Amino acid sequence: MTTKKWRPLWSYDTEKTEPWLSNLSSQGNRLISVNRFTRMFTFEQGPAEDVQFQVVYDKSRKTLSKVIMESNWEEVFYTGNWRFLKNDSKGVSIYPSREGLLKRNRIHFYVLAGLAMFCVMPFLMMFLLIWTLLTDINSVEPSPYWWITAVYFMSVISVLVLTIFTAIKLKAFERKYFNSAVDDNEVSGKTFTKWRFAWMYEPDKLEKWLSEMAAEGNHLIRVGKIGTNFIFEKGTPSHVSFVCDYQIKTTPSYADIHKSAGWQLKFTSPYSLTKHSLWSQEYAEGEDIPRFTYDDAEQKAQVRKVLLASTGVIMYTLAIIFIYLWMGQSFERQVGWNVHSFIEWAMIISLLSPLMIMIKTFNYAIRMRSVN
Amino acid sequence: MKIEKILKTYIPMTETAFYILLSLTIPRHGYGIIKHVEELTKGRLVLGSGTIYGTLTKMQRDEIITVYADEKRKTIYEITDVGKELMRHEVNRLKELHASALMYEGEFK
């Protein structure tokens, strides 16, 4: 006798799916197959088994590695890039990597987030339009195509909900299996806050400032969510090395590998793409200052990466500002529709921010030239 | 990636890449690699975690190494058959280098 169970979002929530499968197995439901498209799990009645499950996503589709097989992992079912493994040993000490799964869910999240951005603007516009129409109820005529509007609304809402859901699950997954959480220090006394803006464009200055603060006995406890407020606690002076790192793209093992080498994660931007993060490590008097790399070529490559990212930000902001200014001008000339001069001034003033970033970036490039 | 292409990109190997693969004769954590390389070279070669991260990421992409996790969810790196073949080629090259060095060593005195 077979039973079917529907679990539509199982692949974004393997943390719950795996214990669910183990639980069913202990009740005598043996997993036979999973349909990737209908999201349907099929089970067969059999003897109860006390096993743990792991869902593996592996694009290379290679056979299980020797170490994994020697650790008693057994394939129950596979479909596409997915493998469902079970293990009936008690003290399992070797697990298949979850990197493939994390990478896959990250891609899904980025696609969904992109789609959500793409949907939200037209959605809001339409919402406003319908709102104005509905408040003037007499002007509304019943349309035979209302269902199209309804379907559209439903799909936009479901994309938004799914994006938020995957974002939350992804973060929890990374924290649990890839040690990606920020290291918080216990606060024992009074703290004080200092503000720093746009430090991503001059990472060397922030590193120096924080090291000097530590040498004066001001220890960084944590950094605010958006990375502008630095919270310190007064203590004894010590030697602390800070590294402000930038990565265009990070792999799942990024945080863990630095943490295992003794670094504390003090701040990280939320996503795996264009990642800014701040790290600290204490060292003893006379010891070499800990760095991420001691290799000249790698250090230069890192500087180039930061310069490239800053240039990207500058170009992007400038492009947006100029498009708005140009649109305002052409509206004025062609339609005689006057954009409020306040808005125009605001746009011109907002040119200051890319200008400031440009100066910071330029100075950073000069400083790095003389260092290396 | 085909083995010929891997040999072409990785040989001659950088010192970092060579010592990382050399320390993977047994599976190790990222930090285990740093420590082992430091011991092997008696402190001459200190690898930063950024160096290790960059090299391991590339090697994993090219399937020279593979990963799994231990019970504490720490990533463990292991050399693959492709990686072993790469090392055999590199060791042969180094042997030749070494033999040549010994042969002509005296000329530079």
From TrEMBL, chain A:
The lineage of its organism: Bacteria, Bacillati, Bacillota, Bacilli, Bacillales. Coiled coil: none annotated. Keywords: Membrane, Transmembrane, Transmembrane helix. The keyword Transmembrane helix applies. This is DUF2812 domain-containing protein. It comes from Paenisporosarcina antarctica. Pfam families: DUF2812 (PF11193). The chain crosses the membrane at residues 107-133, 145-168, 306-327, 339-359.
